[in-house]
Design goal:
Oligomer: single chain
Radius of gyration: 35 Å
Strand content: under 5%
Distance between the termini: 113 Å
Largest sheet: none
Number of strands: 0
Shape: rod-shaped
Order of helices and strands: H
Length: 88
């Protein structure tokens, strides 16, 4: 009958091997997760950079549109003022 490592008593070589095996598996899983995370980072880095570039372009366009709108409003105000001056 195989002894359970949680039974009362001192651990034996089989228990120690089970502990070492568990430790090895945890280390392997951790290493595998690190590799997966690195691959995900590498795979997502370029698309994220491209998205950031698109966002920067959109923000620049929005800024240009704001400047154009402001200039247009100023032009309309000036046109109204010129119209008032010419009527007077």
């Amino acid at each position: 009958m195989k002894k359970n490592m949680y039974d009362a008593g001192s651990p034996d070589a089989e228990d120690w091997n089970a502990i070492l095996n568990s430790e090895r598996m945890i280390a392997e899983n951790s290493d595998q997760q690190i590799r997966i995370n690195a691959q995900l980072f590498d795979a997502s880095h370029e698309p994220i950079q491209q998205l950031n570039n698109v966002v920067a372009r959109v923000n620049a366009i929005d800024g240009d549109l704001h400047a154009v709108t402001t200039t247009l409003h100023k032009s309309i105000i000036l046109a109204d003022q010129v119209s008032e001056v010419t009527r007077a």
